[in-house]
Amino acid sequence: MRDVPSAYWLDVKSKINGGTTNTSSASGILADAASRSPAPTVIFIIYDLPNRDCHAKASNGEICCTYNADNTCNYDAGGDCAAGIQEYQATYIDPLAALFAQYDGKVPIVAVIEPDSLPNLATNMGDPHCGNSATEAAYKAGIPYAISQISTKAPSVALYLDAAHGGWLGWENNAQQFASLVSSLGVASKLRGFSTNVANYQPLGVACPSFDWCLPNNHPNDPCCADPCHIEGQYDPAVNEHQFVQVLEHYLSPIVPNPKFIIDTGRNGVDGMRADCANWCNIRGAGAGRLPTANTDLPAIDAYAWLKTPGESDGCTATLPGGASCSRYDSFCGSQDSIGSRAGEPYAPVAGLWFDFAVQGLAKDANWNSTR
């Protein structure tokens, strides 16, 4: 697994410019890639919106619309988030776009734009942390600014806007709402396409002849309709990520002609390991999935890639490995499917930190050539 490439998450501003020799920064990674012949493709996850991760606690970010006294975000405060948007633009996106410009045409760069952000606006506006005016303003201003700045300064960068996964946006009304939001941002022409399953565990599955092939219970014995998360019975046709790509193609093609997709396969090599597929945090029994490749099963899919770095924690258990309480604890990280919820299992560190027990499990149960 050490020899398998994965994306690099720019989840804090300090990871952008760290010199040319520090490969724990975007600048060092790009300098290293440029020194090779041919230069390898580098994938970055752009992930630092104001009021980031509004529907969870584990990955709340460093830029806020309104700050609490301890420098965390006050998600209950409304407003236009003008200061937070300005901070995001000037101290995160502008330096990143300038860095990409230095390597434009020299290193193939892929950027995945703000995982979970637009999907939250599509489906979770009932959550006051997502539905308040400040968070909505931050996302609707921040995402198009990131896309526009990067595409202007570094036009060779392939931009993929995050589209969650089939168990989130696969339903017709959710997909339609997401498509409407994409259209409203006014930057569709600058996108290469969309990313799916980022940091999630949805199965890759087998592609069906059409996006609605499995509905309503039309072909229950077709392998492409295998439904480990039991969502087809809820009228979600996206029983796997191949099907989800076809759903997104159907609803997004009028907005982004011939959209392309990149699917995260870093942790979806095992089907049916969750008692509840809504659980997303450090899942027990998960295995690394299909190796990164541009040899995919559908023409619309550009690549399978390991976008969430296998071994980095999704979020902390209520108690940290050192015994202290975790201030960013999200109840999903204590779910029955999450590592650390059973006696004898180690506690999980905060999101983004190395979780060795988890990566050992991903390696043990890896299914490199998995189709599902």
Encode the helix/strand succession as letters: EHEHEHHHEHHEHEEH
Top-tier CATH class of the largest domain: Alpha Beta
* Count of individual domains: 2
Strand content: 5-15%
Distance between the termini: 19 Å
Helix/strand structural class: alpha/beta
CATH architecture of the largest domain: Alpha-Beta Barrel
Descriptive terms for the model:
TIM Barrel, alpha/beta, 2 domains, 372 residues, 7-stranded parallel beta sheet, 9 helices
List the helices and strands and how they pair.
Layout: E1 8-10, H1 26-34, E2 42-46, H2 82-103, E3 109-113, H3 117-123, H4 128-131, H5 133-153, E4 158-162, H6 166-169, H7 172-185, E5 193-196, H8 241-252, E6 260-264, E7 301-305, H9 356-364
Helix pairs in contact: 1-2, 2-5, 3-7, 7-8
What does this structure look like?
The structure is a single chain. Helices cover 27% and strands 9% of the residues. It is an alpha/beta fold and 372 residues long. It folds into two domains: 8-310 and 354-361, TIM Barrel (Alpha-Beta Barrel); 311-353, no CATH class. It has a seven-stranded parallel beta sheet with strand order 1-2-3-4-5-6-7. Helix 2 (82-103) links the parallel strand 2 and strand 3. The longest helix is centred in the N-terminal third of the chain and has 22 residues, at 82-103.
